[in-house]
Amino acid sequence: MKIIKSLGLLYAVPLALLVVGVVGGLVLGEGLFLAAFAVGAAATLAAVFALVVARMNGRAPADWKRVAAATVVLVVAGLLPLRTELFGGPDLLTAEGLETGVEELRSVATTYDAIYIERDFIRGQRGDRAVIYRDGDLSPTPDDTAGPDPDYAFALDEIDFGAIPRLIDLARQRFPDATDVLRVEVTRPRGGDPVEITVHVGRSGAERRGQLVADASGNPR
Predict the structure, then answer these.
(1) pLDDT in tens, 27-47
(2) This model's pTM is above 0.85
């Protein structure tokens, strides 16, 4: 308890829960953060009550400089899971980001001849036109009269996009020297051939690139 008091955590924790809950729950609508807001609000009231009682009993007031510093640290740590939503779009290589990006492409068209996915954007190619989703925006919406190239076209429903995060993990295991995931491609190599999902990774050392290829259901070669 002495350590908690000396670091200002007795008041910093409730305040941090309150702030994180407001940002994550009320602003972004995340359920877990709404729970943090509820706990933080109740704990803050309890902390204020404890402070009033302490003052009435003549006890030393809290060190508010330490409380402020501890609150800032806890708020930053609590908001780390929301860093992409707060400072940019979602990571499109995660399951949630992929679901969002693919649904945006689907709102324009259900068939494409290539899809390219990186952390900050997803591009659906239809002939010489593209649909690009980045930072919550979809642009440009193509003139759909030409449509995709029939030799390479595939339907979004043919692809198990939910398998891509697992394939990314497998690519990192297959290439232990992988430094980053460069992009994921969904393509049909030639007319009539099966659709492929390809995970491209950057590597350290002499081999600067690596790739893992899987079928449309996410079964790796």
Answers:
(1) 555 556 667 667 767 777 776
(2) no
